[in-house]
Amino acid sequence: DVPFPMKREWSTPASPTFSTALGTEITSSRNNYQKRAYQKNRTRSFKDVNRCCYSRPTSPFRVLWSSLGVLAIVYDVIAMPLMFFDPPSTEFTSLLRMLMMVFWGLDIPVSFTTGYFDKNGSLEMRPTRIASHYLKSWFFLDLLVVLIDWAVFVIERGTSSVQSLSRLGRSLRTIRFLSVVRLLRLVKLQTFMDTFQDIFALGSASVYVNIVKIIAFILIINHFIACAWYGVGTLEAEGSSWIEELGLAGKPVESKYVASYFWSLGQFGVGSVEFGPTNTSERLFSIAVLLFALVTFSSLVSSITNAMSAIRNMKSVQSMQFAMVRKFLRENGVCRDLSQRILKHVEFSTLHRQRRVAQVDVVLFKHLSEPLANELQMEIYSRHMQDHNLFRRLCRTAPVTMHKVCGNALATHCIACEDHLFCVGEGAKCAYIVIEGMAVYTRQREAKAYDVEENKWIAEAALWTSWVHVGDMMATRECDILMIMPEIFAQYVRYNSSAFYHAQSYCRQFLDRLNELVVENEEDLLDINQEFIFNNRYSAKWGSESCDDARNAAALAVAGAEGAGAETGSLADEASREAGAAKSLQGL
C-alpha cells in the first residue's frame, strides 16, 4: 500500500490485439498520417539546397518581399495613368522608376525560388515543380513588362539629341502605353489584401476595413477617370477642348490634375462641376463615365451605408446586453464588489471573443474529417506540451496517437482576474496548462505564493493517480487554461501498445518519486512544480526502463500478430520501430 497508487488505467496491461472496428480505425488513421508524412518528406528531398536558395511562401523574407511588391503595385496604379499628363522627369521620379525596374527584374528569380501550396494544401518545394508552376502562371507577363520597361529606358537613354527625341516621340509614347499591362498585377494585390484582412476577421474592425477599401476603390477609380479625361482633352477634334476653355494649356501638371479630378468626382454626384465637354469625343466619354457612375457609385454608397448600420447595430446590441446584466445585478441585490467583478469578466469575455476566433465559431471546420481535425488540434496545442518530457517523446514517436489525444482529451477554459481555478481539498479532475495569462498558487497554511506563468503544468499527478488539490490557485490576470482529461488520455494511449508502455513507465517513475516525497517531507507536495521526474537520476532511469518496455511492447505485438493477422503485424512493426527510437533516446 502506498499513498498514491497507480490508476487502474495504467496498472492494467494493454492488450496487443484490438477489435476489428478499432483496428480499422487505427489503420485508416495511420494511412492518412503516412500520406501526410510523405508530403512532408517530399519537401525535404532538396533540403540542403532549399536552405540557401529556396524560401517558403510564408517565410519572413517572402513576406517582406511581398510587402515591397504591394508598394510597387500601388506606385504603378498611381504613376501609370499620369502618363496622360506627360509629367516632366525629375531626379526623384527617375530614382523611383529605376528602383521599380530593378525590383520587378529581381522578382522573376525570386519567384523561381519560392515554394507554393498546391491545390491539396501541401507545400511544394521541389525546384522543378516550382519552376513549372511559375512558368504556367505569371512568368511571361512579368517578363513582358520588364522587357518593355527596360526597352523604354534604353531608348530614352540612347536618344540624346532633341531631333531624335522628336522623331521617336510618338513611337516612344506608344511603347510607354504598352507598359499598361503592368496594371494586371492588381490581381496579385487581392491576395495580399486577403492576408491583411485576416488580421481583422471579426467584429467592428472588419467593417471598418471594408469601409476603407470602398473609399480607396472610389479614389482610385476617380484617379483613372481623371487621367483619361485629360487624355481625351488632348485629342485632336473639331472645336476647342475643355483644356483650352479653362486656359490650362500652359499651366503646371498639378493644376491640370486637380481640375480633372474635380470633374471626375462631379460625375459621381459629389459636388457640382462648372465646366463640361465641348466636343463630340469629350461628350461620348462623359456619357460612358455617367453610365459607369450610375451603376457603381450607387452600390458603393449603399455598401458604406450598410457597413455603418452594421456598426451601430453591433454597438447597440452589446450595450443592451450590458444594460441587462446591470439591471439583473441591481434587482437581485448583488453587492457592489461582486457586481464589478462580474461586469469586468463579462467585458473581458466579450473582448476576448472579438479578439480571438474560437474553433466552435468556425462553422466550416465541421466539414473536416476526424483525422484532419485531430491534426489541427495537435498543431495548435502541441507547442504548449513540448516542455514535458513524455509528451514531447509521444509527439515524436507516436504522432497518430497524439492526434487522437489532442482531438478528444483536450479542452480549453477561460478564467477572469481573481477567479479560482481550484481550491484546497477538491478532487483533481484533470491536469492543467496555462496557455496565456498569469496566476498565483498558495498552499494551505503557507504564506509563500508561487507565480504560475505560461506553459506551466498544474496538477500533473491527476493523470496518473487519484489526486486531491493541496493548495489554491487564483488568476491574477485573465487566463486561458488547457485541460487534459485523464480518462480520455489513458483511453487513447492504450490503443498504441508502445505509447502505452512509454506512458506506463513514466507513470511508475513519477509515482515512485511522489511517494518518496510523502515519506521524506510531505510539505514538499504541491500542485505545481511536479517536474521532479525531469531530474537526471529519474530521467535516466525512465529512459532505460522505456527501452525495456518498448522491447516488451514489440514482443507483445509480435505475439498478438501471430493470432490476429496482418493488421496487428503492422502494429508490431510500428512497436519495433519505436523500440529502436527508444534505444536512441537511452543516452538522454
Task: Give a quick set of tags describing it.
588 residues; alpha+beta; four-stranded antiparallel β-sheet; 21 helices; disordered C terminus
Short characterization:
With 588 residues, the protein is an alpha+beta fold. The protein has helices at 8-11, 20-42, 47-53, 60-79, 91-112, 127-136, 139-158, 162-178, 186-197, 203-233, 242-246, 253-267, 280-331, 336-355, 370-381, 389-397, 399-408, 486-494, 497-520, 536-564, 566-585, and strands at residues 116-117, 123-124, 410-415, 420-422, 431-436, 439-443, 449-452, 457-458, 471-475, 479-484.
Describe the sheet with the most strands: 4 strands, antiparallel
Report the principal-axis shape: elongated
Helix content: 55-70%
Question: Total number of helical segments?
Answer: 21
Percent strand equals 5-15%
Q: What Rg is obtained from the alpha carbons, in whole angstroms?
A: 34 Å
On the 0-100 scale, what is the average pLDDT?
A: 76
Strand order of the largest sheet: 3-10-5-8
Spans where pLDDT lies below 50 across 5 or more residues: 17-26, 42-49, 161-165, 533-588
Separation of the first and last Cα atoms: 32 Å
Class from helix and strand fractions: alpha+beta
Annotation, overall tally of beta strands: 10
